[in-house]
Amino acid sequence: MIVTMKKAVVAFLPEDIEKITEALQSTGEFMPIATETSSAVKTVSAPALDEEAATALSAYGKYRKKGGLLTPAPEYSEEEFKKEREDVKKTVIKAIELNEQLESADNGLKRSADELKELEPFLSLTENAEELSDTKYTLVLLGRIPYSEKNGENPLDTVSAEYGLKYEAFYDAGGMRYFYMPVFREDAEPVRSALDAAGFEPLQLPYKTGTAKKKQAEIKNKISRLEFIKESVGKELEEESQNAESVELFYDVEKAKSDRNEIPADKTESTVILTGWVRSDRTDKIEAALSDASELYSLSFEDPGEDEQPPSVTKDPYLIDQCSAITDAFSPPGSDDIDPNPFMGPWYYFLFGMMIADVGYGALTAILMFIYKKLKKPTGTSGKMVNVMLYASVPAIFWGVMYGSYFGQTWNPVLFNPLDNILAALALSMIVGVLHMFTGMGIKAYKNIRAGKVIAAIADQLSWMLIITGAGLLFLPQTRTAAYCIAGAGVLLLVIFGGYAKKSVFGKITGGVTSLYGVTSYVSDILSYLRIFALALASGLIGMVMNTIAGMVSGAIPVPVLNIVVSLPIYILGHGINIALSLLSAYVHTGRLQYIEFFGKFYDGGGVKFTPLERNNKYTRIIKEKTK
Amino acid sequence: MGAVYAVIGAALAATLAGIGSSYGVQAAGKAAAGVTSEKPELFSKLFILQLLPATQGIYGLISAIIILIKAGIIGGGYQNLTPEMGKIYLFASLPIALVGLLSGIYQGKTAAAAILMTSKQPDSQTKGIQMTAVVETYAIFALVATIIIVLMV
Lengths: 628, 153
Fold this sequence. Notes:
The complex is a heterodimer. By secondary structure, chain A is α+β, with helices and mostly antiparallel strands.
């Protein structure tokens, strides 16, 4: 059922702004609407420090000892959440400072490493930098030149012989020779151009005084100092990271603040007006929260206007509501659409179970999901997904019993073993698929009739349902005559009414005949359900293979206890991987069948998600106290 | 002699579909690693997408094992396999071997695109999963074809 929405308008005094917005946020029932005249109001006196807290937490990062993956978020009461925390602000600032020190030490280390690398070619130079500088009469050509022996000749030697100059080579790397060559200033030009012609690249000494060795020692000294600083800052951060939990709480508090700062509102000198969507069945929560927060306010509820699209919320029984996460991932229903969840939910569980179809896997999934739920206490979308898998384990066990599949081993199938009876298994998948599609088409027919389009319901849904039913019954010899009648009636209806949407008489006639081409899309839809069979088969077969491998290993070891010890990890690992893959495949492919084959028949979606102003706590959970 | 054909078929199914999957998983994995370096918090969402092209290799392995079982190489009796039956198993392996190879590669590319989409809009991961999963449909059909041939003959 789709809940009707009301538009709430709250007016109050500017000085109450902090209290009122906080009260609305803590209910999580008010979705602010931006109007043409509204702007973001400043609702908090002090700036929100959520980004700073996030920086502090990332600085603690690797230094903090984290609880395991399954540790639930810590719980706080409403009062604890609202308390001001000056001391935590200081902690956050300190963490940011330490982080900056750490970053500058890291940058220094990186720079030093670059310098060391740059120094490497000059390490064997014994001359001081001063000795290699130019003088009044001489120049020192320093650089590198491509170096290769050709007939005992190389460019450097050629130049030096030609001009009668001596050079000192000190380093070879990557086919280049590093050297220096003192020349008289008046000779410099021809020597230089001769060297340039051979590919000479001049270099600067990366130091001004002394030798490269001396410079290297200086840099190494600097590195050890920076490393010491890094280590001691790291230690300090590690100590500070004990405060991580209170900083996490601080982050959530500040994030809530900064979210409140984004609320659009109309503001005059004496009043602030907030407009927002509220579920019509929960208006009392808003009233209660506001009356707790302030005495001077006005609150009114209006019905949505003609041209407005309110967000949509669905209200369904618990089991079906868990599947709403899957519908919302496709698209939430439009506010005047019908709620697809009561139809989609049962089918989701059913198809999901049919794709797993193993008693052992179903039971293990149930146990794992139950433990995960108890320990981690997931909420929101992930909580719903965990619930979907938890409850889908029931149909998975049911289909496991039907197929007689127990951890991949076959034992007393109630219906049949799909491996022995492939045709039956294929037929079953397609029959289930047809029923699934008929559910969707039935809903569309209902929607058409409700909208007064009876002909559309006959042409688009009824005719095809008759044709598909007839085509299916053709396979049974006993029902063949009836099958022809049913399918024939369907084709007749389709040909007569198929062109109903066309304007001209000619179009109406040809439209009926051409709509018969729709058969291709129905055939491909039905075949698409073969994946149910394929996935059940795949998970069963992989389980069987794992059993075979582990059995072979166990059989190869003649020692009674040892064979179990060795083969047990193979069983556990093999089935563990198989369960994980089966769950992923079942989730993906059930989703696909729902989105394309099922929703494609009747569901438009296109609604707006209800995203109320609420505390999106990342690290903490708040326990609502009982009413005093 | 028949067993030789059957083994070639089983090897083709496991090898080609396995190559397809490994290519697909690495293409998606490279994209996922790039995104994770910038946004480590998206890892679990991206990992699911990276895993999607892994199924072709599994389908190939299943087909190989079913062929080996039916041919009597697992469980014994392969000496009696006629060359005709062996050839049937060889050809039966082709749907999953070839479709597995190509659809694994293509699915990996789609998964990489979906990963990049998720990096820009983390909420659209589900849509990315669906787009990527559609590619796998044909590998599933190929698996069905292979298994039907092997088991019905």
